[in-house]
Amino acid sequence: MENRQYDHRSPGTSLVAEPPPGRSRRRLRRVLIATLVTGAAAGAVLVLLPLEGTPGGPHPRRPAAGAGSAAPAAGPPAQVLTAVVSGVPAALPDLTSLIGRQESTVRARPRDARAWAVLGAAYVQRGRLTADAADYPKAETALRTSLEVRGTGNAEALAGMTALANARRDFPSAERYGEQALKLTPKQWAAYPPLIDAYTGLGDYEKARSTLDKLMGLRTAAADRPAVMARASAVYRDRGWREDAVAQLTDAAAAAGTPAEQAAYLTGLGQLAWERGDLDDALRHFEGAVRLDPGRREALAGKGRTLAALGRTPQALDAYRAALAGQPDARGTLELGELYESLGMTREAQAQYELLQTRLRQAAAGGVDEELVAGRFEADHGDPGEAVARLEEEYERQPGIEVTDALGWALHRAGDDQEALAHAVAATDRTKGGGVRSALYAFHRGVIEQELGLDAPARRHLQEALRVNPYFSPLYAPAARAALRELGDVPEEPLPAGA
Fold it and tell me: Is 269 within the bounds of a domain?
């Protein structure tokens, strides 16, 4: 995949495929969530259960937490290796240690295809966790070496290439590699989640759902189920099934095998809470995730986003700075810049926007497709025409919902509201897309409709945006309220004739 060089000045148990009717689990989830966060606050350490049936094979069983048994011989190295080859979240220090060991192994045994595949997968995980795209070319070299040594029947290397393509937002390649890997290992659960991610990125929600159904139909070991439930949660979220997404992810966090894995699922719960405007719940989960895994940047950024919405600005800025320290990711950098802009801190906002441009160039050098973030930046803070050009090209390659919405907004900012509305409708119409309930998408559609003089639907979608999440953006939530004030009250309609 070729990437345009960026320059803004140039053109645990709820494994069901469908939600059961009348599910009544609110009280149970509240208990589970309270238990999870209390455990995180106490610094609870979970013991890894065996991941049987994964590409890495079984490893010795760990005793149940609190059993008082002595630690088994297979320690953290075996744990993180199993996690990496299965795509389960791992902690940064463990990943770095594993990479060092695998680099030594491949130097000593350059024809060891599995060692190369594990090394490549570890580079991918570390790159995603640190937002450092420099790890991705290393991952590609390792994975391609593994394929050269063993050939196209190398399922582990193909799975690693799928994960790498997803990390680079190259969803067509992820689909191609993922389907090859799944064909080789149709009974291994770990082959399914990366392919679901690829289908979602391509906007092929039917394939994402059918692949999830197949995943749910597999017999998975108890220790594998948290990762399966987490994937189900993501698909349910995209379908607009909020309660079922929360239920799956709550169960996954409760059954997670390591602190790093639990922290990843708590971060997801925090994001789900944020999306529905539940600030207290979001903050509780983000803080719990950070206590378990201090290097989890998504949790730190989520904490900053939530604290800003709560009006705790100094703490919010501290959380963002911690999330972006060293190697800031593009989305977080744009988010912090917009927070500064909303606070009237123009100089600080501009510094973040300049850093964003540097970060986008670095991402492109690592083979990462950040055209979505670049397009969003140009639409709101740069050249809307450039945003349209970038996002139209991206939409041709991988027309997922995020890209569809962003293109519609860029077209609006460039003055083409008729074309913009078609994309805004597609991004918010459950019959045409994923069905995700997004305050930002509803806001975009409402503004476009207002510009076209469609006052009634504009009012409805702006109200929906604030109802879904009143804090969805420090810049645009206030803009939504201002637009509603401009639209005024709903006019009284005359009664139908004969009424």
Answer: no
Q: Same structural domain for residues 251 and 379? A: no
Phi, psi of 492 (to 5 degrees): -70, 125
Domain CATH code at residue 220: 1.25.40.10
Q: pLDDT tens across 147-189, in order?
A: 999 987 999 999 999 999 999 999 999 999 999 999 999 999 9
Token pair of 241 as six digits: 């099934």
Residue 320 domain-assigned (yes or no): no
Instruction: Write out pLDDT tens, residues 278-335.
Output: 999 999 999 999 999 998 999 999 999 999 999 999 999 999 999 999 778 999 999 9
C-alpha dihedral, 100 to 105 to 108 to 112, nearest 10°:
-140
User: Which residues make Cβ contacts (< 8 Å) with residue 17, sequence separation at least 6?
Assistant: 212, 213, 216, 217, 232
With CA atoms as reference, report the closest residue to 122 among 139, 141, 110.
139
Predicted confidence (pLDDT) per residue in 79-96, tens digit: 788 889 889 999 999 999
Which of 235, 257, 279 delimits the end of a domain? 257
Query: Does residue 244 sit in the same domain as residue 374?
Result: no
- Given CA atoms 42, 305, 241, 392 in this order, what sign does their dihedral have? negative
pLDDT tens readout for residues 417-466: 999 999 999 999 877 665 889 999 999 999 999 999 999 999 999 999 99
Count other C-beta atoms under 10 Å from residue 113's C-beta: 19
Total structural domains in the chain?
2
184, 212 in Cβ contact below 8 A? no
Residues 245 and 382 placed together within one structural domain of the fold: no
Q: Are 50 and 60 in contact (CB under 8 A)?
A: yes
pTM score, whole prediction: 0.84
Q: Nearest to residue 320, comparing CAs of 365, 371, 368, 355?
A: 355
Would you report the helix, strand and coil content of the chain in percent, each value rounded to 5? 70, 0, 30
329 token code pair: 């990711």
In which domain, by residue range, is 381 found? 370-487
Residue that terminates a domain, selected from 257, 279, 304: 257
